[in-house]
Amino acid sequence: MYCERFICILRILGTTLFGVSLLLGITAAYIVGYQFIQTDNYYFSFGLYGAILASHLIIQSLFAYLEHRKMKRSLETPIKLNKTVALCIAAYQEDPDYLRKCLLSVKRLTYPGIKVVMVIDGNSEDDVYMMDIFTEIMGRDKSATYIWSNNFHDKGPGETEESHRESMQHVSQLVLSNKSVCIMQKWGGKREVMYTAFKALGRSVDYVQVCDSDTMLDPASSVEMVKVLEEDPMVGGVGGDVQ
Questions:
Q1: Are 31 and 47 in contact (CB under 8 A)?
Q2: pLDDT digits over 49-84, tens only?
Q3: Where are the alpha helices (DSSP H) in 33-155?
Q4: Do residues 21 and 61 share a domain?
Q5: Cys-Cys crosslink for 151: which of 46, 113, 161, 185, Cβ 3.0 to 4.6 Å?
Q6: Span of the secretion signal (predicted)?
Q7: Last residue of some domain: 54, 75, 96?
Q8: Are the CB atoms for 12 and 5 separated by under 8 Å?
Q9: Which of the four pLDDT bands, split at 50, 70 and 90, describes residue 238?
């Protein structure tokens, strides 16, 4: 334990010193303006400043290549997909075609037993079409839905503390007891939408994957992300290749 902490501290110090040295070197080279190669009228010149930047780029590329090889080898190692995963989708006045494509891609995910929670930021009649699309794609008999007059932080019109608490418990129970859930709630912004999903899930799953309602997911995306998290305990989060 102590050895790992010592190594971690050394890495932090080494990275910091390298960064500071690089900054000071670039600054000094820029001020001095020394040139290794130059042509008449300086149409082309290569100086100390350029040499430091080129060296930095080469070093970055080298370590990126080594890390890529390491990750490629680790991802080829088979692992047991026995961790529970929930996919949380944030939706707000989404284009119907985009939402359908998103949910169809969700149905093609190859991770076993993944839970899907879509929270809609808004609970007016103009937002109902998103819930309808959700039940259409995910299956009416396999999906749970709820139109919430409030959210976790704001009560609905004329609502008491007790009824607000009961509605929060109902949302949490709905998410925990169903594999596919869609909740419409009082508008509060994307953070409020994500909070609802995270709060309702609590510690019921090992990993949470998030995406917007206009995202088309690769079928293997959940599997590959979990592989990275399971391979290295020092990794706390994984980002997808968004194109």
A1: no
A2: 777 778 888 988 998 888 888 777 766 666 778 999
A3: 48-75, 96-107, 128-138
A4: yes
A5: 185
A6: none
A7: 75
A8: no
A9: very high
